Amino acid sequence: MNNIKQAFQNGKAFIAFLTGGDPDLATTEALIPVMETAGADLIEIGIPFSDPIAEGPVIQAASERALAAGCTVDRLFDMVARVRKTVKIPLLFMTYANPIFAYGAERFMKRCRDCGIDGIIVPDVPFEEREEFQSVCRAYGITQIFLVSPTSQKRVAEIARESEGFLYCVSSLGVTGVRTELQDNIAEIIRTAKKVTDTPCAIGFGISTPEQAAHMASYADGVIVGSAIVSLIAEHGRNSADAVRDYVASMKNAIS
Amino acid sequence: MKKGRFLDFGGQYAPETMMSALNELEDAYERYRADPGFRDELSALLRDYAGRPSRLTFAEKMTRDLGGAKIYLKREDLNHTGSHKINNVLGQVLLAKKMGKTRVIAETGAGQHGVATATVAALMNMECEIFMGEEDTKRQALNVYRMNLLGAKVHAVTSGTGTLKDAVNETMREWVSRIADTHYVLGSVMGPHPFPTIVRDFQKIIGEEIRRQVFRAEGRLPDAVIACVGGGSNAMGAFYDFLNYPTVRLIGCEAAGRGIHTPETAATIATGKLGIFHGMKSYFCQDEYGQIAPVYSISAGLDYPGIGPEHAMLYASGRAEYVPVTDDEAVAAFRYLSRMEGIIPAIESAHAVAYAMRLAPEMRPDQILVVNLSGRGDKDVAAIARYQGVELYE
């Protein structure tokens, strides 16, 4: 069993996202163990990109703050290597194709392996372009997470069949960000996926409240929360630890 | 797996939510491109609404003044809405209509593509929303008003640098938010497959006409075809029909802004490197970590950090040349063509005129050079006045 699947051994998984380097790397470094202790089963660390086309305003702003504060891929690798000394849960990078491509995919994956990153999520590399990074990911034991969305339709089974780690199920149309209402049609997509794979399914995009998390967890093996956490960090800055700890604990509790 | 590739350039690097719409678009395009009814309908629109074929004008005074090759101007500036953009928009909106879409969205830089989209949306009774960088809404305030007049809603995009790339980001975000009834009318030969192919096909009429018109006037092929390149749609349209005629030099003029050795440039081939962005693998202006560079050009339409994948292929294979042209050169050419031929070119097209002014004297008088005059310069008059220190408000 790969490390990522272990995140789904502790009841429904709570997957937490934060933007690396927002507002600075020391804050990210401090928050990762805080989130683990509060009950996060897996953490996605966003590598900030200048033009995050899949993100809503909250994560766009966080990416801008992180880049303005001097966050780079190299500094993130160093930071992850430091937190890995204590953090045991799986860690993923979420970023766009170009930061990986510019760094050199092979060099990137090697450094991921060396610092203890388990997988990557790259929203602008869809299933059809998976060959871009697939062979180097495999060579270095890095799992590439695929996404399905409410518009995936005919492609769900094909993607699910080849999925590894977990299947990232996008809850609704649009970009990342808090939504007051979530639709339920992702449930059908997950049913389709479950017929062809035993890879866990986690739902992300738009989830912010414990009630939403509990509801979405009833369809899936885990929930992913990003913008709500990033909003707390935007509000509390370097002193986010308490707010993030309480929030993560309440969310994990809601799906347990 | 190699769908929509030009050598290794291009591809379909798009978010999952966009993929079904891209597949649907590809299927519809494959079906309608071969459909005689669709082709007839589009031809009639291009002729009766856009005013095609656009003229080929012999620039006699310019030719004499520069003392080299015979210079012809391909007059895309005479099209309805004032640029080549209408060719692609008529094709895409007609296609969207056939697909049952009721709403179109588009990015725009200078506003030419936005105006063309708003125009055709009005004609075809579609809801229309345009995304334009906030900086560009100021540079091109008249075009914003024009789009409003045509019934389109214009969103000023404040994210990032507030220019063309940010407008593309925001249009992509909007598309994945409302995809079922909406078609994204992408304005250049860029983005994820099938856009680079569709836009090129709808623009290749420019080169087909150039070849026919030059043959009629001169009985032979031209020696060089010059066009400005941002994403590259007018250049791709002008070049495509000549790809199999290796004696015809194809030259794309990139916006060098204040110079390719300054950070204030948008010359992608001259200063960029290979990357993956906006759905495609191509060349992009970026830093060592792959962050997209905040590019600059006096021309809002060329102020883009990338280039279409087919151009990347033509550059890599050596079939086309790409040269940087500065703001100063473009402004000088803008004034030159106005005085010399009585034609005020778009500041984008003035980049191509500027290079023609450099190249023509090096060519022989029996050689033929065609400049694709992709748009007219009415929209730029106030900005050029300001560039030259004249306080003129629209």
The separation of the N and C termini of chain B measures 50 Å
Number of domains of chain B: 2
Bin the strand percentage of chain B: 15-25%
Radius of gyration of chain B: 19 Å
Total count of strands of chain A: 9
Tell me the strand order in the biggest sheet of chain A: 5-4-3-2-1-9-8-7-6
**CATH architecture level-2 label of the largest domain in chain B:** 3-Layer(aba) Sandwich
CATH T-level fold name of the largest domain in chain B = Rossmann fold
- Class based on secondary structure composition and strand pairing of chain B: alpha/beta
SS-based class of chain A: alpha/beta
- What characteristic shape of chain A results from the CA principal axes? globular
Oligomer: heterodimer
| Relative helix content of chain B | 40-55%
Q: Number of helical runs of chain B?
A: 16
The mean pLDDT of chain B is 96
- Percent of residues in helices of chain A: 40-55%
Number of domains of chain A: 1
Contiguous uncertain segments of 5+ residues of chain A: none
Number of helices of chain A: 12
Largest interface: A-B, 42 and 37 residues
Characterization of this structure:
The complex is a heterodimer of chains A (256) and B (394). Chain A is of the alpha/beta class and 256 residues long. Chain A has a single domain, classed as TIM Barrel (Alpha-Beta Barrel). Helices cover 46% and strands 14% of the residues of chain A. Chain A contains 12 helices and 9 strands. The longest helix of chain A is centred in the C-terminal third of the chain and has 15 residues, at 241-255. Chain A is globular and about 45 Å long. Chain B has 2 domains: 5-46 and 85-199, Rossmann fold, CATH 3.40.50.1100; 51-82 and 204-387, Rossmann fold (3-Layer(aba) Sandwich), CATH 3.40.50.1100. Chain B has a 6-stranded mixed β-sheet with strand order 3-4-14-9-10-13, with helices on both faces. The chains are: A alpha/beta (256), B alpha/beta (394). The interface between A and B is large, with 42 and 37 residues.
